[in-house]
Predict the 3D structure of the following.
Amino acid sequence: MRIESSTYLLEAAAIWMRDMRSEFRTRFAINAILMFALTTLITVSFAIGSFRIHVSEKSFLYSVLLWIILVFSALSGLSRSFIKEEEAGTIDTLKLSAKPQAIFLGKLFFNLTLLGVLELLIVPVFVILMKYPIKLPGYFIAIVTIGGLSLGAGTTIVAAMIARASVRGALFSVLSFPLLLPLMIVSIKGCERASEGVDVSGWPEVKIAIAYLIVMITASLFLFPLVWEE
Amino acid sequence: MTNKLVKAIERKFQVKVTNLGKHFAQMLLFKNLNFNVNHGDILAITGWNGSGKSTLLRVLAGLIKASAGRVDMFMNDQLVPAEMRRLYLGMVAPALSLYLELTARENLIFFSRVRGLKLNRTTIEEIIGRVGLKDRGDDICGTYSSGMLQRLKFAQALLHQPPLLLLDEPFSNLDRKGIKIVEDIISKQRLSGITIIASNEKREVDYADRVINLSA
């Protein structure tokens, strides 16, 4: 008998690499996310182009629109991380092979990679297309990055919860919304402040988003084995 | 000789099932099942379609919970904790799939890594060769026939050389060569652990020392 000797992180890295390889070959999640993001972004830019918005409203309204695009794009593709295992019948094979926490971390890394790609492509295009004024770029990058990480953590645990449900699509949005609402409010406020260039000493929104991220990952690591084993 | 004997003693594995029952909602599949399976045993589970053969294997594997009773596993008379059982068992079943978008080698490398096994390329090649897929090892599994996938499932289940092998209709989709490969695997497993086969096929059941009929 061969006995395993590995850490959660090594196993998680194996799952992340496997998901990346599968995604590279099928491009299912990335296509879903990017197509949603691009069509929404183009629709928004045509419907409420920069010339229709009063200067004083821009910071708030553009921050809201940016996070609506990011959150709903994420919701359109990240739910697939566990559902595809269930649909392909690989979920039980994976259960018999890996530690639950390693599976959660692997899926989390994969979702964060997808979100990273989404933000790298969509945020600059949004800023340029909408002429989004950003007076504190450092703060803006920090809140978008931490907000994205937290968004990935929140959606990954919900994706695990709904994988075995029959009405997954609706359930994913319903369960994600209350979980992501505090994060959205904080991220929108952070982007608005970065856009207006008001005092951000102490980086309050970034700190709250980091706290959200830590709580979400810690709670998920405890909850996931229960969700996974049931 | 002494080393072999020591190894045999070291690997003594046992499964003990006590008052096991399973029902889904109002539908009772089985109840009050009691049996022991010792190292070297081959047990067959038979029964009509829907009698709970596959479900019993899934309960033994820990994939679903029993409605009543318990399953205990012992390695050298030491109780194996429930969360550690997956290290001691390999399972081949129609419901357990592999990643069709990966090649056979990629599947085996993934499952060995995720199990924390440090298998080198030679060992992986040896395992692929053992199930007769050496020439097709770099092909995407989506292009495989159902028989080739069944062979690959065996390769995946045997990666960690488990002392407990759970087989649900092991010969399904296999050609004569494939059946011979699985027969060899079952024969070798008799020396290294326990095999539990869920099937109604006479050829598969004939390997067993004992039969539990869930329809009885």
Summary: Chain A has one domain: 5-229. Residues 5-229 of chain A form one domain. Chain A has a mean pLDDT of 90. The CA atoms of residues 41 and 192 of chain A lie 18 Å apart.
